[in-house]
Amino acid sequence: MSLSEVKKSVEERMEKSLEALRANLAKIRTGRAHAGILDHVQVEYYGSPVPVGQVANVNVVDARTLSVQPYEKPMVGAIERAIRDSDLGLNPVSMGDTIRVPMPALTEERRRDLTKVVRSEGEDSKVAVRNLRREANESLKKLVKDKEISEDDERRSQDDVQKLTDRSVAEIDKMVAQKEAEIMTV
Q1: Residue 145: alpha-carbon gap to chain centroid
Q2: Residues in domain Ribosome recycling factor (predicted)?
């Protein structure tokens, strides 16, 4: 692996960590209805689990209500059951061939619990980014040992990797702060 490959690899992997954090934070509900909240809910469809979004149309009716319109009428019960059994704490209501999902208001205690979850997700992402930095630095040390790059190149590259790490950690902190503010607003 060359010097540029190490840098490119660590940069891509750090970006993937940030994307994973964005996806995880999107799953945490803020009391407002948004269609993405049901993305990770799996429904049994002809023997295999698939996301709700693949068997139904999910729309936002108002700030506190989602509407789920299954593509096939027999799926209403299965989708309703999948949403109820998910870890989101939602109670869907079937209205003919449409399912309404009201979003309950969050209590102050639940908001604090959610901010703890958000901080935990952020900390996990920071650990992942730091692990990537460590792996990159080990790769650079190996390149020096194999005499493929000079020690000066290694030092400069380690500085570049550190700057990438600092930028990623700052982005993680920003995302966590935004999500916490979103959760705490009533």
Answers
A1: 38
A2: 22-184
